[in-house]
Design brief:
Largest sheet: 4 strands, mixed
Strand content: 5-15%
Helix content: 40-55%
Number of strands: 4
Length: 163
């Protein structure tokens, strides 16, 4: 695929996964066309197998899921790699923590904690304190997990520019 072919990104700006893709593009210094589309819309279904966001179209390449999109963009423009340049173990650990963020941190912090504040489903439209309070122990566990990982690292993973 030619790097001259425009990269198109589809999704809503509120999505942390769309934001992650756009941040990766900015990190690599790439230009792209952004199309704000709602999940499950015909446009989203055209670029994601489940109609979710983000989606990418680059010529004939059509991808969904932020991790796949970022890996594709990183491989397409290898001059400024975003991934690890070290060992197989380092690469695997990065994938492990990315998976933890997607499956645990996002689900707990965003879906179970932030959403009840931002989009309450209570009768009076106020934040759902019961839902928020119920998730606090899980959040404490997540923050402890992340702090423990950070503290246990004698040699932290290299910082990226702009971070």
């Amino acid at each position: 695929m030619s790097t001259q072919t425009p990269v198109e990104i589809f999704g809503i700006p509120q999505s942390n996964f769309v934001r992650a893709v756009r941040m990766a593009i900015a990190e690599k210094g790439l230009s792209y066309e952004y199309h704000p589309v709602q999940p499950h819309s015909p446009e989203a279904r055209a670029v994601h197998p489940r109609g979710l966001v983000p989606g990418l179209r680059h010529g004939e390449v059509v991808l969904g899921e932020s991790q796949a999109i970022i890996a594709y963009l990183d491989g397409l423009w290898p001059d400024s790699p975003m991934g690890p340049s070290g060992s197989l173990a380092e690469s695997a650990e990065i994938i492990q923590w990315t998976s933890i963020v997607v499956t645990v941190v996002d689900q707990t912090l965003i879906r179970q904690y932030v959403v009840p504040y931002a989009f309450p489903k209570t009768a009076d439209g106020s934040p759902d304190r019961a839902a928020i309070d119920a998730v606090l122990p899980k959040l404490r566990d997540i923050f402890t997990l992340l702090e423990t990982r950070k503290a246990s690292t004698a040699s932290p993973l290299p910082a990226r520019r702009g971070c």
